[in-house]
Design goal:
27 helices, globular
Length: about 1000
């Protein structure tokens, strides 16, 4: 038979016209294109290898590369063999004679084209499909490594009684394998059918048998294998019922257990029967039985897979839904609280008072210094304007909150790293040599006391600027001596070339002109162990190609002693070193042991924890500060399990990445430690100085806050009735974005010790009044409080305003409006800071700072002017928190000469005078002299308006300037 086919090929070749040889230029262009693609791939891989080697983590790169290569080759070759093998078998089994027919005559033209190049075509098709399949398999490296190094959770689900590790580690991998096999068989089937049709093994327009016996045998074997693999797929689908989403809960429900699960079992059995029928048809040569089997299979899939579950849901579940679903809801609640690490979290009834006495305020006075008045979201521009030093430095748009020990006391601070901002360079200075070899790093930490007080607890300065704990260049303050250079930061240049200039002198700007003892700019040379040597011609060529910048190849600044720094963001570095982690969106700069380090949190997440509620991590972590969290969440954005398994640091000077196992009981962490040995250090290795600055991660708190809004309820009936669900309120400044959590030191019990915490509040679902207060201990140095949730539930019969209602009270209060009016008259912009909530005096106290800034122009920055306070139905305002509290309490302060001052409580709205920032409503809002100055200023403003209407612009400007000076005098008089 082979001789016949060879003769047929020779005959076809004889009548085929001679092909033109491709021109040399075409071959040359193809070769050049192939070389460029190969060089690009090589550059990407080799520079990654060099980057990992510079960190000392080559084992991570090696493990990743070889795992991907093995998956690529294994599955790519398998796919190529299945497709190519079926193409070859189908060609071998083509019929010796083809009956003459119009159909075959039409196919002769295609056979003449395909037959001479069939071997090349078969190999090309197989290789291309194999490359795509291998690329897809290489992307499954995480699932493979988790399956390969799986460990038990030592918890089982209540329905299949399998360890949770089966769902998290094994099920995703076996799903991929089964899906891959199904795809391979389908592609092989398509390839075989096309070849049989082309060469006459399948004849659609011929009477009688439409399939040759050989074609029928091959197609039946492939269909039998396909249905057999589908039976395995049904078996795996049974376990997916524990993680399927639904309108009520995620996981198993009554209809799924009593209708969908039996349907999967029945369909699996039918699939096995159909596979046997297809295999038997290799010898029977009839399509009757397989056809009946497939028809039964399809009908069963519709009846059992769609109609039966719908009938059970409508006629069995819906009439008795609370009773039918109660057990499943209970399992879902237990699994969800375990998966999100909320076991043991309980709700405490909090009989919130709506009135506050001076005695209650004094009893809880220990919490007051921990109330952070400096808003990290608003004061970025203040830090920028007052501590930027030069235009080529910047701070983030949202700052961080940390705490340091100052004079034996823990002090909350708002901190920022002063980083390089190349866009701020003057136009003439924006040259390649400056941007990549001179301006290479940021410099120092900026810190301000969070409660707007200095170390001696003196009152705030009248200009409303922060009280600095760390400032200037060179840095000075309370943080001690440390290396200030920041080569690796959140806003570092994309790459920098470091090392001495060819003449041996330093070229990197270290501190700008006008600072230091010499009064001149100082330069330095990077001496850290991080960075890739770029001195050789080979490395220059690689990085010139990587960054598309020929200067790396041509500049004399790139020489034998040079290094290149890139991929410098702390989050990016941690994500590359530990690609199995989901990294928190916030990196905290801290001074630890004389160095600046970035502290980050890494999460292990899964979407396969049986019966746990599945939700979008992006949606759960989005709020007014981070509207869209930039997450590379693994394996998917939809998660139902999370652990803060790793805490990590990135050294700001040399880029060293260090990982510490934080939740050592996490099975995913244990599996990844087996896959990447020696990468994660034990928790016991965390230095005490570093532990003092680690915090409870904000994004984890947001996720848990979202879950607890529903899953604080542990009773299935109450959960089903949906009458005790809470919402995270919208931020008062935004109608569509959630209020972010706030870090501050707070005591959840009256008279208790303040604890550095993350705090937030809930409102009842679709309502605006307050439902509860939630906080979690955020100081890891105190294991008795760290990670422990406190939920204070307000009584249902007490109406306590929520954040939006409080913001409305502040905006509509006449007394507050009068205090702000002076600034509004001079065109100042009023900005409301973070609205903090904390338990004080047996109730809930709201505190909100008010900032002002000049409207229009440049160089404007917010300055803290007032503090707003609300307790119950009372609101107050003052220059300081104490003054605002006095205003709420109706307390006035009377000067007692050298003996100090005394405070006296008065009924609201009755006598009393106010001095030194007290905004009491009982007397004048300002001293009499200040009021007279404001009256004169108001007259000047009215005079200016009259002059403006008359067209006298010069007179208008003069009157306004006089009025502004009078307002400033009034403010100064009111502050004394």
């Amino acid at each position: 038979m082979s001789d016949f086919f060879d003769d047929e090929d020779a005959a076809v070749a004889a009548v085929r016209p001679a092909r033109r040889r491709p021109r040399p230029i075409v071959l040359t262009l193809v070769a050049i294109a192939a070389l460029l693609i190969a060089f690009s791939v090589f550059t990407s891989i080799w520079t990654e290898k060099l980057w990992f080697a510079s960190l000392g983590d080559s084992s991570v790169f090696t493990t990743l590369v070889w795992t991907k290569v093995a998956l690529f080759c294994g599955f790519g070759v398998l796919m190529a063999l299945v497709v190519g093998g079926n193409l070859a078998v189908a060609f071998r089994l083509r019929p010796m004679f083809r009956p003459r027919s119009p159909e075959q005559a039409g196919l002769d033209r295609y056979r003449e084209v395909v037959t001479p190049v069939r071997r090349v075509l078969m190999v090309a098709i197989s290789v291309v499909i194999g490359l795509f399949a291998g690329s897809s398999a290489a992307g499954q490296w995480r699932d493979f490594l988790m399956w390969r190094h799986r460990v038990p959770f030592h918890k089982t689900d209540p329905y299949f009684h399998k360890d949770i590790g089966w769902y998290v580690f094994s099920l995703p991998w076996w799903h991929f394998v089964v899906d891959f096999l199904m795809t391979a068989v389908i592609l092989g089937l398509i390839a075989a059918v096309l070849v049989h049709y082309l060469y006459g093994g399948i004849r659609l327009q011929t009477p009688g048998d439409r399939f040759s016996r050989s074609a029928q045998a091959q197609v039946c074997v492939l269909l039998g294998v396909l249905v057999l693999v589908k039976a395995v797929d049904y078996w795996l689908d049974r376990y997916d019922l524990t993680t399927n989403d639904g309108s009520l809960i995620t996981g198993m429900t009554y209809a799924r257990q009593h209708a969908v699960l039996p349907a999967k079992d029945i369909l699996m059995a039918i699939a096995l029967i159909c596979a046997v029928l297809f295999f038997a048809n290799v010898w029977r040569h009839t399509w009757l039985l397989p056809g009946v089997g497939i028809a039964l299979f399809a009908l069963s899939a519709v009846l059992l897979g769609l109609i039966w579950p719908a009938v059970v849901e409508k006629f069995q579940v819906k009439p008795n839904e609370p009773d039918k679903e109660s057990t499943y809801i209970a399992h879902n609640i237990a699994a969800t609280r375990a998966a999100y690490d909320l076991d043991g979290t309980s709700v405490t009834e909090y009989d919130a008072k709506t009135t506050l006495s001076p005695q209650q305020s004094n009893r809880d006075a220990a919490s007051l210094p921990g109330i952070r008045l400096v808003d990290p979201m608003l004061v970025s521009e203040t830090f920028q304007q007052l501590q930027q030093v030069r235009g080529y430095y910047s701070v983030p748009s949202v700052l961080d909150v940390d705490h340091y020990e100052v004079d034996g006391r823990e002090r909350d601070m708002v901190v920022a790293a002063r980083e390089m901002h190349l866009a701020g360079l003057p136009g003439a200075e924006q040259k390649w040599s400056n941007e990549h070899t001179v301006y290479t790093h940021g410099y120092g930490i900026i810190a301000a006391y969070g409660n707007q007080r200095n170390a001696q607890d003196k009152p705030v300065r009248n200009d409303g600027s922060p009280v600095w704990a760390e400032r200037d260049i060179p840095p000075k303050g309370v943080l001690g001596k440390y290396r200030p250079q920041i080569y690796f930061g959140e806003n570092s240049p994309d790459y920098s070339v470091v090392g001495k200039a060819p003449g041996g002198h330093d070229v990197e700007l270290d501190s700008p002109q006008g600072t230091g003892d010499s009064g001149r700019s100082t330069t330095t040379t990077y001496a850290g162990k991080g960075g890739v040597p770029i001195g050789s011609l080979f490395h220059k060529l690689l990085y010139a190609a990587k960054f598309g910048d020929s200067n790396l190849l041509l500049s004399s600044r790139v020489h034998a002693a040079s290094k290149i720094l890139y991929d410098r963001s702390p989050r990016e570095r941690l994500q590359k070193v530990a690609p199995w982690l989901t990294v928190d969106s916030d990196a905290l700069p801290a001074v630890v042991d004389g160095r600046i380090v970035w502290i980050l949190d890494g999460y292990t997440v899964s979407d396969r924890y049986a019966d746990s509620e599945s939700r979008s991590m992006e949606e759960m972590t989005s709020d007014a500060i981070n509207p869209r969290s930039t997450y590379a969440t693994l394996p998917t954005d939809q998660i139902n399990y999370i652990r803060n398994s790793v805490k990590a640091t990135v050294d700001a000077y040399d880029g060293t990445v260090t990982l510490y196992a934080w939740d050592q009981s996490d099975p995913i962490l244990q599996a990844m430690e087996k896959a990447f040995p020696h990468l994660v250090k034990p928790r016991s290795d965390i230095p005490p100085d570093l532990l003092a600055h680690m915090r409870y991660p904000e994004d984890l708190f947001k996720v848990q806050r979202n879950i607890l809004a529903d899953y604080h309820v542990t009773d299935p009936t109450t959960f089903f009735n949906d009458n005790d669900r809470w919402d995270v309120p919208n931020d008062p400044s935004s109608a569509t974005r959630l209020q972010p959590p706030y870090r501050l030191s707070v005591a959840t019990k009256s008279g208790g010790k303040p604890v550095f915490s993350l705090t937030s509040v809930y409102t009842p679902k679709n309502k605006q009044n307050l439902a509860s207060f939630i906080s979690v201990g955020a100081d890891p140095e105190d294991p008795s409080t760290y990670g422990k949730f406190q939920i204070l539930r307000l009584p249902d019969n007490t109406q306590v305003p929520g954040p939006s209602q409080i913001a409305n009270q502040f905006a509509s209060d006449d007394h507050i409006a009068n205090r702000l009016q002076a600034f509004k008259r001079v065109g100042a912009k009023i900005e409301y800071g973070n609205l903090l909530t904390l338990p004080v005096g047996g109730g809930l106290l709201y505190v909100q700072p008010v900032y002002t800034s000049r409207a229009g122009g440049t160089g404007n920055y917010p300055a803290l002017r007032f503090v707003l306070v609300s307790f119950g139905k009372e609101v107050g305002i003052g220059d300081t928190l104490s003054a605002a509290l006095d205003d709420v309490l109706g307390v006035t302060e009377s000067d007692q000469g050298k003996g100090g001052s005394t405070k006296t409580a008065h009924p609201r709205g009755k006598g009393g005078t106010t001095t030194k920032g007290n905004g009491g409503k009982g007397g004048a809002a300002l001293p009499e002299h200040a009021l007279r100055l404001l009256q004169r200023a108001d007259a000047k403003f009215r005079q200016g308006q009259d002059l403006l209407r008359q067209g006298d612009l010069a007179g208008y400007a003069k009157a306004v300037r006089q009025g502004e000076r009078l307002v400033q005098q009034a403010i100064a008089a009111g502050s004394r």
